[in-house]
Amino acid sequence: MPMNRSSRLVGFTYVTLFVYSIASSVSITGPVMPLYVKSLGVSVIGWSVLVAALAVGMFLSEWVWGSLGDRTDRRLLMLLSVLALSGFSLLYTVHSLLPFFVVLQFATGALIVAIGPLTRSYISDESPGASMGLYVSLWWMFFLLGRVVGPLLGAYIAQTWAFEYSFWASSLISVLLAVFILVSFPREMHRRQAPKPNMLGSLKLVLGRRSARFLFLSALCMFMEFSLISSFLPLYAYGEIKMSTVAVGVLVSSVSGAQLVAMPLVGWLSDKFGRKRTALVGCLASSCLFLLYFAAGSGFQVLIVSIAIGLAFSGTALLLAMVPDVTPATMQATTMGVYGSFEDLGSITAPLLFGFVWSVFGPVYIFAATSIIEFMAVLLIHGIKQTTGKKAWNEVR
């Protein structure tokens, strides 16, 4: 592919990810959703079940989307994803559907999750191996930009008008994104030759490597932390610290903002000193910082701790940059999908675990549980065989 066309499509991919991240974080995965269902009378345990249902739908389908991305037109798959997000966002505003929110969450997760492996695999396909850390860091930057804008926009809309209006905004943004994808992307996005094994055979091949399994389990731990920040930190700040709706939106956005500021430096450090080493430092620091919530009794203190965690957590995003090191060249989307499925598995187990800890031990102890999980991730990352991005697939165990 000519360099100018490649660069243009990479740019389109980043913009698509940015707008999609805004659309999803305005309501469905942002601070508005937990506060909205709380206003409808849903308990913390009920909210945990809803979060888990969304994650189950993502877990069961993300590797499928990734495998399809190696075999068919990725543009059409992205269109299906954003249009599904648009339609499902509107259904959340129908209060009579509250008993069916679990089903709605599952279906939403199964359909909207496609964008992750599709954009990741495309960036991986087009990135020079020596600069993989930088390119993946840029992927995270655009994702985080959406996560900064989305919660602020959603919280402002919810407080100014009503919770339901944020879902309408999410739907409108998704429709506009669908038009952008249709106009900007070519009918057939560039991809490598599809793998010979069938979908289940490809899954077995990917999971057959020890380094890949350790990497996937590390992603599981990372997204348990992500689930806490996106789903339980808003409830803790709102209910225990008594922060306002807009203040909660600022809090969630500040974590993503801190990651955004640190990401270019993290990408540069990873290419200079190694992805594994940089990820280890970030994960260990994150594990220690979660314990500071026990001493944070005010909204300002919670904000400072959260920003510090966001800075440290940015290092763990380099796990994504390590995926191509344990992936055959023709299976980028498939492996990105499997990686994403383990992220989703973390999002399934996290709300169930944190809901239990919250109810039995107390709200603040969810941060102690997260600290332990992050330390487990440190051990897992340490067990991944050091790779450089230049090794053949059959050399990485």
Commentary on this structure:
The chain is an all-alpha fold and 397 residues long. The chain has a single domain, classed as Growth Hormone, Chain: A (Up-down Bundle), CATH 1.20.1250. Helix content is 75%, strand content 0%. It contains 15 helices and no strands. The radius of gyration is 20 Å and the shape is globular. The model is unreliable at 387-397 (pLDDT under 50).
How many domains, in number, for the residues? 1
Secondary-structure class: mainly alpha
The N- to C-terminal Cα distance equals: 31 Å
What characteristic shape results from the CA principal axes?
globular
Keywords, separated by commas or semicolons:
globular; mainly alpha; single chain; 397 residues; Growth Hormone, Chain: A
Layout of helices and strands:
Layout: H1 3-26, H2 32-39, H3 44-69, H4 74-91, H5 101-112, H6 115-126, H7 132-160, H8 163-184, H9 199-207, H10 210-239, H11 245-273, H12 275-289, H13 299-313, H14 332-360, H15 365-382
Helix pairs in contact: 1-6, 1-7, 1-8, 3-5, 3-6, 3-14, 4-5, 4-8, 6-7, 6-14, 7-8, 7-11, 10-11, 10-14, 10-15, 11-12, 11-13, 12-13, 12-15
What is the gist of this entry?
This protein is mostly helical. The chain has helices at residues 3-26, 32-39, 44-69, 74-91, 101-112, 115-126, 132-160, 163-184, 199-207, 210-239, 245-273, 275-289, 299-313, 332-360, 365-382.
